[in-house]
Amino acid sequence: MACGPSTSSTVDTPAEAGPDSIAAQSLNELVSNGTFNSGTVAPWWQGANTQLRVENALLRADVTGGTANPWDALLGQDGIPLNNAQAYTLAFTASSSTPVTVRVTVQLGVAPYTAPLDQRISLTSTAKRFTFPFTSNLGTAQGQVTFQLGGQGAFTFRLDDVSLSTEGNPLGMTSGFYVDPLSNPATWVNSHSGDSRAASIQASIASKPMARWFGNWNPDITSAVSGFVGAADAADKLPVLVAYNIPGRDCGSHSSGGAGSPDAYRAWIASFAAAIGSRPAVVVIEPDAVAQLDCLSSDTERQTRLGLLRYATEQLRDKAPNTWAYLDGGNAQWIAADVMAQRLESAGVRNIRGFSLNVSNYYTTAQSTSYGGSVNASLSSRYGYTKSFVVDTSRNGNGSNGEWCNPAGRKLGVTSQVGGGADMLLWVKVPGDSDGQCGIAPNTPAGQFDPNLALRLINGT
Widest CA span of the chain, in angstroms? Predict the structure, then answer.
């Protein structure tokens, strides 16, 4: 259903595989004594109604009863430096002697106690790992991590393996999103300057930042990816890429294809990630591959696909440290949110920045962000973490009419931007590229640019 480019319609940027211009950023650990292996508590402090000690290499906090608010019994660590717009991940393992819900923050350590991260977590006697990525909205040398335990009665809280670390933030390394001069719309405009439709398509589509899709139509994936990312890097812009080569792609529908075997896919995605290297990028991983697990004929095939997706997340995590990667999570009306959360966890979403929604579809941004929130609620309750997500807004200006394959009456959505209820709103699907030989473009193959499709998206007709 994602309908990426066909072989004939994609033009690769010439390879520019020179040395990376940005050095890899290693994780920067900001918490001291997060493992408690030394047997000491410092520099962790305790507030009223808590008593701290280290027991069996865990931090133990005995909390007294009779408190009304979470902050009436707390522990924390001060002197945490935070940078505005920097991405961080807070992770820890925790348990309690009785079932409780407590508050966890990363916040300003003085009034007004602004908290870039503020989470409630449910604890039991079984130790559970929690992971919370977030982006700081303040810059200070007076940040703090707190665990606020009041208002729950008397209980014992145990904590281990606390980490607050930075991750490579591509948004902070570039001056904006990359406009691909060799996108299908731009290529069409350049070769049809006398066409009456060209000026409108140039102004409304070809001049806007959008993703480039990569798959088995790229004979040399290393050169294709490195050339595209290198061109963006030279312009100080952030490129958006789509990896679209999973075996059995699109369940044999309009965009069928993909790597010929699991081994071929592993080699392909490893080369894809290595070609990005330490340069900044955004990557959407395999549109529809998670949602379309149901079309695979056996559990063995489903587990193979999940394993390949996990491998993809690991490769991007390990080889592209300044890339924010998003594993595709379908759309707002396809898979139930709790089922999607389970599938994303199995496919390795915890290894990367998050998940993508609405790729090549038409649901409104509000519908998509609501669904993303429901997926995160399930991830949090079941696995103890949430993830950031992005929404494809390329064709959602008029919402969905229930059709997905070149429907009439759709319209361009807002252009690529940070925020908007998600990490980013992005043009992932290239506007004007066909979904397949269907709908209002019955003779245009998937991934081929059709100027009439583009004009109808511009006008909403």
Answer: 78
The answer to whether residue 283 is domain-embedded is yes
Nearest to 89 by CA among 385, 431, 376, 296: 385
The residue among 175, 172, 70, 158 whose CA lies nearest residue 115 is: 70
Question: CA–CA distance from 201 to each of 94, 191, 361, 441, 449 (Å)?
Answer: 54, 13, 20, 17, 11
Query: Catalytic residue numbers?
Result: 250, 288, 435
Q: Hunting for tokens 């060209």 — which residue is that?
A: 198
Does residue 25 surpass a pLDDT of 50?
A: no
pTM: 0.74
Using alpha carbons, select from 64, 51, 73, 71 the residue that is nearest to residue 153.
64
> CB neighbours of 267 closer than 8 A, spacing ≥ 6?
none
In a domain, 2, yes or no: no
Task: Give pLDDT tens digits for 164-203.
Answer: 887 677 887 888 999 999 999 999 999 999 999 999 999 9
Write out the residue range of the structural domain in which residue 61 sits.
Answer: 28-167
Is-contact 229 281, C-beta < 8 A? yes
Q: For residue 219, is the peptide bond before it cis, meaning its omega torsion is within 30 degrees of 0?
A: no
Asked if residues 49 and 73 have their Cβ atoms less than 8 Å apart, the reply is yes
Nearest to 313 by CA among 301, 298, 328, 299: 328
Tens of pLDDT along 67-104? 999 999 999 999 999 988 777 888 899 999 999 999 99
Are 282 and 229 contained in the same domain?
A: yes
